[in-house]
Amino acid sequence: MYVVILLENPDYKKFDYDKIKKQLSFNLAEKKIIKELNIQPDAFIPVLFSLKFGGDWSFKTKNLAAMAVKEKITRYNGKICEGYTLERVTLFVNPQVISTEGKVLRLEKCGNKNERELVERPFQVKLDAEDIILSELNPETMTIILKRIEGPLSFEGSAAYGVSHEIEHLTGCEHTGKFIWEFKYNLEY
Ligand SMILES: [Zn+2]
Q: What domain count does the chain have?
């Protein structure tokens, strides 16, 4: 029925029709893979957001806490001057932090807020979860590989900051930091 309506609408160009057809089949493939993974669909939402809009995402209901943390790995061949940036998204369903190490001061911009804030994050985080799914998006092969993996996992640097940020959203204890306008400019000669 979808298709018939589109074909009857003269405003739709062939490109639009092909695009919508592809999007529909992509959505169907998504549904299929979620079913095959045997994971509750809501738990997969942060992965879909991370793949579609980029960045780290978390999702919370009464009984479910899920977060997706993205790492970017560039593979570059210097001989032919070509490469690609692989995106690795790790999904944690009902995550639990085991340990953290170090303190790193940094400015962060949360999607829910208008300005960047100065926050303190651990340099390393070790965590486990009821379920962990790894998604690897490869721009070269245009594939998204999914696999279930066993915890616990350790993250360092950017990914550790992301984990810490999302865990704050899930546990509801969000820290408010200082803002850029509280910094001082110093001119050096
Ligand atoms: Zn946030």
A: 1
